[in-house]
Specification:
Layout (H helix, E strand, L loop, with lengths): L51 E5 L7 E7 L2 E4 H6 L8 H7 L5 H4 L3 H15 L7 H8 L2 E3 L4 E3 L7 E5 L2 H11 L14 E5 L4 E3 L4 E2 L2 E5 L6 E5 L3 E2 L2 E7 L18 E8 L2 E2 H7 L13 E3 L6 H4 L3 E2 L18 H6 L1 E2 L2 E7 L1 H5 L5 E7 H4 L4 H9 L10 E3 L14 H4 L7 E3 L3 E3 L7 E8 L10 E11 L12
Bound molecules: manganese (II) ion.
Manganese (II) ion binds next to loops.
Amino acid sequence: MSGDARNPTLASTRSLIVPNDDCESAVHRGALSWITSANGVRSDFPLANLPFCVFALPSDSGKRKIGVGIGRFVLDLGAVAEAGLLGELASDVSAGCRAQELNRLFGMGRETVRELRSALTMLLAQDSPLRERERDSVEKLLYAQKDVVFELPFVVGDYTDFLTSLNHATNVGRLYRPDNPVLPNFSSLPVAYHGRASSLIPSGVDFIRPQGQYRQGHGGAVTFGPTCKLDLEVEIGLFIGRGNALGTTIPIEEADAHVAGLCLLNDWSARDIQAWESQPLGPFLGKSFATSVGSWVVTLDALEPYRTAPAARQSEADPLLPYLHDALDQSVGAFEIHLDTWLLTGAMREAGAEPTLISSAEFSRDCYWTFAQMIAHHTVNGCNLRCGDLLGSGTISGPYAGSEGSLLELTKGGSAPLTVGHGESRTFLQDGDEITITAYCARADDPAVPRIGFGECRARVVEAATASSHSNVN
Ligand code: MN
């Protein structure tokens, strides 16, 4: 679907918006917090967001804590609960707040998390009835986000990655099947493959360029070595809150009740390995070496003001089967999320240059299937989803040049290199390259609804032979 038209949302002169930086200069018009950095118009974390994360303090021997994002801080939720600052919490909710991952808390269901967010809103609101002494207590439990180490928010048992962008399916299909780019099942069901949960990595952690076997060129020799076609995939992830029992289904109209929240996701892909191995089955070693997960879980309650209709179905598509159709889902089943992807090469880093914006996409415009449809489809055969399971949207690609969510598409299979930084070019990723995905929701039509953001999902490619494991990129 990529035409010659330039992506109107892409402007390479823009600079990467560091979350919460420069956010106190202008105040948004939503509910305000006494933590002033939450009130800036460009803050990712206003009072209306309150996303969840898991973090550790470098000084605390890696002990994981549950946190909530507010302004440029993360609030230690376990310590807040323990100090009795959230009122009378049920003992299991308090234990959920003090856990080292989000599974226990979100396994209690959306209503519990909703009540917890309400209590946090009361605590952090500018007009909070907190006494000065209590406010001092809360302040002591705030940590600057730049000073903490973010971990995976959930223990993930299973990870499923979908294919929901028609533009992506068309762009990639065209490279291999020019006459028949989109396979006929695309509009009947959300296609997916089973991803690898063990190699999910938190944002900020390097990953090693994978090795594998692939064919050199069209019909060339089969060889083994580091991938020559390392790529990214810009995606939105969804964590399951309450699961379903084996043998039962989650009807589409009940899907939202099973959602913990959304996050950023980068499904790293080795295109040469993937192309050679995926015949006739789906991706395996070309994907399973690493998938980066954003630090923040944004709840559906926070995303409610940004609901919108999903992308229009193709006029020639068969009608949706009943289990994938819900009138409400068809009208407001998608979310208006703007995604930006940035590349910083090793040479740019050394020169102190800003990252180059390589792609901008719109989640609602560019995804054909909603998460409710993905959940209904995933469970329609009786497959059980469990708390903490991760679903990926698939690569989010728009209809314009510059809105594609992978280098495979942005460079037309490697034949049209991108210019980045000061005259460097890229087809696929080189060692030392760092990709950062950022995303936010904003309502231009209603300035009283504050912008909310997803923070970032960032990782750097490390050379195959000299990689270190689990080192933080800073
Ligand atoms: Mn993917």
